[in-house]
Specification:
single chain, alpha/beta, 10-stranded mixed sheet, 13 helices, 16% helix, globular
Length: 526
């Protein structure tokens, strides 16, 4: 029997036995002693939000988490709005809030000079401020925006992305600021032109990282060491922003002692977080959308609504393109109706850009939750098997082509599959949102446009070339309207008429379409 070795309990040992030899060699490495326990108890909790924001200074770039009002750091924003000595701020966020909530407070207090956001939506106040030349606005595709922040936090100065290639995002065609008298006087600060390169025959543009001076984060739970947990969709932009800025301040609904959070449940490690305060402002809703209670009768069914609704007929035809098990993203407008008309036996996984895979229907009134909303900022539910993730992961699965189908609305579509759906220069500035990302990988994700054939003034929306700023070039594979179904040859740049609606002739479709198209030898009826 060999000798017994007694080893120190604080050492790491590695035994190695050489082939053909009976002797053992013992390697011992002595690690440093355990840090003093008092160092592990360093607390980052501040007494108030007012105290925590005292180091924010004029000219700072402030990252503000949230998507709509979900996960918005309202307590910290409110505290900063009381700092009359702070001005000329640049705020970075997905959107700027609604009504008097969110970053709108900083604009109305005169502290905000520039917004870097993805989506204005229906915020008419900020839209007017931009068009009147009273603030700077840099519109960035949603996935690009979060990736620019993630990149800086990871030490990456820039990256190439297909999102926005061959659009005004690449050319710098969206002005950042108009002159003092507004849009009609001209441009004061033009958009930022981007460098482009081709990789494997595909066009990509270079996007610079965004470096934040301060980040405002809303968390569900935080411990005294700064570890953070998010609840449901409130993860969104908060996760990437918390890893970015020089000064990261998190407001939390619940602050717990060190050791209370399960390590597996921590979304943001405390190394990234500098200060934690108690959230005191109530959580808000953008849109409370509800379903009737179970067993409720009355009201027309989706099928009964078809006869009176052009939009629903378009949605029903678009639903026929979906197969069982597909991963699908449905844009706002007509596409949101598609899920009501799935064929029997077809179940799909709905993805929402703000961080849901497995999105369910609207909740009943007793199920409404401010932390479970869709990309349209409406309250929704989660299906069994659903998953929640941050905006970085959400747009990674979109840009990476992991979605089977994306169905979008549009203002215009060209015969080559170009799509325009985010702005009318000088009139309508909703923002880019996630649309540019959704159409950025059409070789892997089929892009379907579901829209009415003509605009409200009767002008055709299917054209030889789009006259509005593009969302994506040669991105659309199929167009579905109330009159017809077209397949798009994105390579050669032409349309083929595949189906016409009941009672509609090819001649009518030709009269209402502003480009030439081929007619299929097997023309069908919708």
């Amino acid at each position: 029997m060999g000798p017994t070795l007694l080893l120190p309990t604080h050492s790491t040992q590695i035994f190695r036995r050489c082939k053909g030899l009976t002797s053992f060699r013992l390697y011992i490495r002595h690690y440093a002693t355990q840090p003093d326990s008092s160092a592990l108890q360093r607390k980052k909790v501040w007494a108030s939000a007012d105290a925590a924001v005292q180091d924010v200074k004029s000219g700072d770039i402030v990252l503000s988490g949230g998507f709509g009002l979900c996960g918005t750091p309202e307590t910290l924003i409110t505290a900063l709005s009381r700092r009359n000595d702070v001005h000329n701020l640049t705020a970075v966020s997905n959107n700027a809030g609604s009504s008097d909530l969110g970053l709108v407070k900083l604009m109305k207090s005169g502290q905000l000079d520039k917004l870097i956001i993805s989506y204005l939506g229906g915020n008419k106040y900020l839209e007017r401020m931009y068009l009147d030349g009273k603030m700077s606005l840099e519109l960035v595709p949603q996935g690009t925006l979060v990736e620019r922040m993630r990149a800086y936090g990871a030490g990456i100065p820039a990256f190439f992305t297909p999102t926005g290639a061959s659009t005004t995002v690449e050319t710098g065609g969206i002005p950042i600021r108009f002159k003092a008298s507004g849009f009609k006087e001209g441009i004061l600060i033009p958009g930022n032109k981007k460098e482009y390169r081709d990789f494997n025959g595909k066009r990509y543009i270079m996007e610079p990282a965004i470096a934040g001076d301060v980040a405002f984060i809303h968390a569900w739970k935080a411990d005294e060491a700064g570890n953070l947990m998010f609840r449901h969709v409130a993860n969104n932009y908060n996760n990437a922003m918390a890893r970015n800025a020089q000064l990261v301040i998190a407001e939390a609904e619940e602050i717990v002692p060190i050791g209370s959070l399960p390590p597996n449940a921590v979304h943001v490690p405390g190394i990234f977080v500098d200060r934690v305060v108690q959230a005191t402002e109530p959580k808000g809703f953008d849109i409370i959308a509800t379903a009737p209670p179970p067993g409720t009768t009355g009201g027309p069914s989706p099928e009964e609504l078809l006869e009176k609704s052009t939009r629903r007929r378009i949605a029903k035809r678009a639903a026929q393109e979906l197969r069982d098990g597909f991963y699908v993203n449905l844009g706002v407008g007509i596409p949101t109706l598609v899920s009501e008309y799935l064929r029997p036996g077809v179940k799909i996984w709905l993805q929402s850009e703000n961080g849901i895979l497995g999105m369910g229907p609207f909740p009943t009134e007793d199920q409404v939750d401010p932390d479970i909303t869709n990309a349209g900022k409406e309250t929704v539910t989660l299906l069994p098997g659903a998953s929640i993730f941050d905006s970085t992961d959400s747009f990674g699965m979109i840009r990476g082509g992991h979605m089977d189908v994306a169905i979008l609305g549009a203002m215009q579509v060209s015969q080559a599959g170009d799509i325009a759906n985010f702005m009318i220069p000088g009139k309508l500035v909703k923002g880019i949102g996630g649309a540019m990302d959704l159409v950025s990988n059409p070789d892997k994700t089929k892009v379907i446009v579901a829209m009415e054939h003509c605009a409200k003034d009767g002008a055709p929306k299917i054209m030889q070339e789009c006259s509005l700023p593009l969302t994506g070039a040669r991105a659309v594979s199929q167009i579905i309207t109330e009159l017809a179904v077209f397949n798009v040859d994105r390579s050669d740049g032409f349309l083929t008429l595949m189906e016409v609606a009941k009672g509609v002739t090819v001649e009518e479709v030709q009269a209402k379409t502003a480009c030439d198209f081929k007619v299929s030898d097997n023309l069908g009826q919708m």
